[in-house]
Specification:
59% helix, mainly alpha, 200 residues, single chain, globular
C-alpha cells in the first residue's frame, strides 16, 4: 500500500475564521497591525499567536488574485476565499468534501450521516498511518471542527442536521479559481459538466 502525503490536522486550532484571516492578510500585505497577536486573540496573546502562525500558512497557498480579494472584496467573497485556503491547505477536509459531500450532492442525497463520516475516516486511515496516532479526544475534535468549517462556509445548514446547501459562487471567486486550478471548483460541489462550462 502506497503511503500518501500526511494529513495535517492543525485546523482544529482555528476553524474557519475569515475575519481573522483578513486581518492577517492586511498585516502582511498592506499595513502592519500593532500588536497583531492581541488583536487576533481578543486580548489573549497566546491564542492570537496560534491563529497568526496557522493563518500565515493558509495565506501562502493562495494566489495573488485570491489574496487581493481577501483584502478588498465583499464578506461573501472573503469567506469563499478563506474556505478555499482551508481546502487548499488541508487535504483531509478537501478529500472529505470531494469524495463524500460532493458525491452525495450530485445524486441528490443532501444529508450527511454519522456513518458517512466514519466510513470516510476509516477508509483514509488505511492509507494514512498518522490517523491511528490521533487520540480519541483529537479524533472527536477533528470531526467537530470539520463540520464547523462546513457550516461556516455554508456547505451545510448547521452542524446538527448536516444538510448540504447548494453553492452559488460570487463572480470574483469563480474567476480566481479559473486562474488557479479548476479542480478546486469541486470543493464548492460543482459537477464536472458545470466545471467544463466555466472553462469554455
Amino acid at each position: 500500500m502506497v503511503a500518501e502525503k500526511k494529513y495535517n490536522f492543525s485546523f482544529t486550532a482555528a476553524s474557519l475564521r475569515t475575519r481573522e484571516l483578513v486581518i492577517v492578510a492586511k498585516h502582511q500585505l498592506e499595513n502592519p497591525v500593532e500588536d497583531i497577536d492581541a488583536v487576533l486573540g481578543n486580548g489573549k496573546k497566546t491564542t492570537g499567536k496560534r491563529y497568526y502562525n496557522e493563518m500565515s500558512k493558509w495565506l501562502e497557498v493562495l494566489t495573488d488574485t485570491q489574496k487581493r480579494h481577501l483584502l478588498n472584496a465583499s464578506f461573501k467573497v472573503q469567506n469563499e476565499i478563506a474556505f478555499l485556503a482551508v481546502c487548499k491547505y488541508f487535504e483531509f477536509i478537501r478529500d472529505f468534501i470531494v469524495e463524500v459531500i460532493r458525491e452525495k450532492y450530485l445524486v441528490y442525497d443532501y444529508e450527511i450521516t454519522e456513518g458517512d463520516y466514519i466510513s470516510f475516516f476509516r477508509r483514509k486511515a488505511e492509507y494514512h498511518p498518522e490517523m491511528d496516532k490521533l487520540t480519541e479526544v483529537t479524533q472527536k475534535k477533528v470531526k467537530q471542527v470539520t463540520f464547523k468549517i462546513l457550516e461556516q462556509a455554508g456547505l451545510i445548514n448547521n452542524i446538527k442536521e448536516k444538510m448540504i446547501n447548494p453553492q452559488i459562487l460570487e463572480s470574483e471567486t469563480r474567476k480566481a479559481i479559473l486562474d488557479d486550478n479548476t479542480e478546486l471548483f469541486k470543493v464548492f460541489l460543482l459537477s464536472d459538466f458545470d466545471i467544463e462550462n466555466l472553462k469554455a
